[in-house]
Write a structure and sequence with these properties.
Length: 103
């Protein structure tokens, strides 16, 4: 069974047991989170349930595994012929989630 969900303006295809990284959520480690699915399907794609925009009564349950910072990203800005140069490093805060159940 797989599901398409939306978390933090991003869409993810998840299966039971998958571990995904999303933008930081205001949850503690070992907390559970429940999200409605946008699409639910079996592995072969024969039994598909779609609703616009969400499936009422569908639930995808997650467990928060970790709060961490992502890899460093270089943000470089330059304006030609103006002697303007900026070099900044950025690390996004992320949350690691494990899919417990799709219903």
């Amino acid at each position: 069974m797989l599901a398409v969900i939306e978390l933090g303006w991003n869409q993810f295809i998840v299966r039971k047991g998958d571990v995904i990284d999303v933008k930081k959520l205001a949850k503690e480690v070992n907390d559970t989170l429940s999200v409605e699915a946008m699409l639910i399907s079996d592995e072969e794609g024969k039994d598909v349930k779609v609703w616009a925009p969400l499936l009422n009564g569908s639930k995808v349950e997650f467990k928060v595994l970790e709060q961490f910072k992502d890899e460093k990203v270089r943000v470089f800005k330059m304006k030609a012929k103006k002697r303007y140069v900026r070099n900044i490093w950025f690390r996004a805060s992320m949350t690691k989630l494990e899919v417990l159940n799709i219903a």
